[in-house]
Specification:
globular, about 60 residues, 4 helices, mainly alpha, 2 strands, about 5% strand, single chain
Length: about 60
């Protein structure tokens, strides 16, 4: 997610619509184990990325990074 954020030209300080900075930071640093799908979708939409890319899914094989 950090890469997607940087590609979007955003900082963590840029408040994400309805997501606290503390929650987002834990997600990005992988300290939060469970993330609601609707929250992931919100972040993907904000960055203009497909959800699969944020999840690290690569290609048609369905493998994850």
């Amino acid at each position: 997610m950090k890469q997607a954020r940087l590609e979007a030209g955003m900082t963590q300080a840029a408040r994400l619509r309805g997501i606290s900075l503390a929650v987002y930071s834990r997600i990005e640093c992988r300290r939060r184990k469970r993330i609601p799908v609707r929250l992931l979708c919100k972040i993907a939409d904000l960055y203009g990325k497909p959800l699969e890319e944020l999840l690290g899914r690569r290609g048609r094989s369905g493998t994850y990074a």
